[in-house]
Each structure stands twice: as C-alpha cells, then as structure tokens.
Design goal:
The protein is of the alpha+beta class. The protein has eleven helices and eleven strands. It has one domain: Bira Bifunctional Protein, Domain 2 (BirA Bifunctional Protein, domain 2). The strands form two sheets. An eight-stranded mixed β-sheet has the order 1-5-6-11-10-9-7-8. α1 runs antiparallel to α4 and α4 crosses α9.
Length: 302
Amino acid sequence: MKKGPITPKGFRDILPEQAKKRRLIISKIEGVLESYDFVPLETPTLEFSETLLGKYGEEEKLIYHFKDRGGRDLALRYDLTVPLARFVANNLGLLKPTFSRYQVGQIFRGENPQRGRFRESTQFDLDTVGSTDYKEDVKVIAAAIKGAREIGLEDSFMQINDREIFDRIGLSKEAVIIIDKIEKIGKDEVLNQLKQINVKDADKVFGAIENSEKTERLSKIFEELKKQGFSEGKDFVFNPLLARGLNYYTSTIFELKPNRTPGELSIGGGGRYDNLIGIFAGREIPAVGFSFGIDRILELLK
C-alpha cells in the first residue's frame, strides 16, 4: 500500500488520544493559574528576526529564521518569553502595576531530536511583569508546583537558585553555560571545560558554588513558600549548581523535575528576567516567569 508524504525530522502528528490528554492537562493547569489571577494571552508564531536574535546566547543557533517574498527577515518563535517582552513593551498600559499572563503555544528549535526534545513542541508559560518583589517569584513558583500536582505529578519538585551566586564569584556567561550542562556531562567534564576557558582555580570555584549559602532573596522566597504550605525538601529544594543557560535571566532561576531520578529531564523551568523587556521598552520593566514543557509531561503521564 502506498504511503503518503512523511513529516520533517523532529515534527510530528499528534494522534487523537494524545491530543485529548494534552487538552486535559492544559485545562487543569489553566484552572490553577486563573486561581492565581493569571489571564490568557496569545502572540504570533512569526516574529521579525531582530526581535529574537541576540537574546538567547549560544542557543541562538537553533532559531529558524529566513527571508519572506518581500525580503523581510523573519523567524519562528524560539520560546514565548521574548514575544511577551515585545508585547508588553507595546502595551505598557496593562501594567497596573503588574500584568500576569499565561500562554500555550508551539515553539520551534532546530535542535537534534531525542527523547523529550522535538523541533516543534508545546510550551505553557506563566509570567508576572512589572515588579521586582520576591513575592512575585513566589507566586510563579507556587502556581507551577500546584499546576504539576493538579495533573498528577506528585513526585515532582522545584529546584531553585539565584544567579547572584555566580555573579558574586565573578563567573563569565561562558562559564555559567558550562555549569548548566552538569547533569548532561557530569562534574569532571564541567571542570575540564572550565579549565579549557581558563577559569582560574576551577576546582576551588566549583567547590565555592557547590557550598554556597542561599542569597537573601532566596531565603525570603523559601520562607514565603513554607508559609503558603509548601514543604522544603518535598516541593522545592535549593540547588546552587542550577544555572539555566539562557542569557536573559538576572536573579532567581528554577527548574521543575519530575522525580528524584538522577539525570531525569526537567519538565519546566524559568526565572527572573529584569532586563529583557527594557531592551524593547526603553525603560526598566522587571519580570519573572515559568514554562511547562507539555510534550515531556505527556511522555511521563502515558
């Protein structure tokens, strides 16, 4: 029997049973977010290339960008955060004084397809814009943990850190990107790569990070999470080696792990990005957000 055309590598059809499960998961998380006063938003799949380029560090090479028939430089969105920053810069009247939104949408990355990674995938973002208050970080983290619990991820937990720890030690962005790979390549290879980029006393530097204490901001976040009924150790943990490689993070960073299995892929992540929107708006506008990886979550909930 003759078969029809195949899809490009890393792009898939979503069969009815999986599509139904996807909609159910999204619906349950939406209910949690709306209880925290997040509102829905949709932004275009296509942006001008200049909107996206220069925001993602070494990940920028994964952006799909091209010229259209009119010679315009366009790109498929890499995530939902930079489009949000562009939107807020053009709609500052929504900041009263903050704006909290959620969005579900397809994102596109020209990476090597593997378990949990596709070239087209679904992200579910939640962000609060307009305040540096640590309680906004707590709101995003709490909503994400509750969302995970609502869809049945009882063993999941949030790893939390603060980029300030790396700044205090004086690590370059290149060094932070290497540390971000620790779960993929291990401590020995991280140390090897740090030495290759001439990080002085790499072993001592790594040890200093590994033994770091919480920053003042993290201490406040942890205390507030506990006040709201979340348990340190079960619902969230401090991980001083958590780095997150994207350039736009400025302070608090966090990742949602599905369980305690070493090397298990994250099913969501985010952090505070206080400078990104200002690139477009011409003024300082702080923000913090989180993104669920819906495709990875679906694999876990089969």
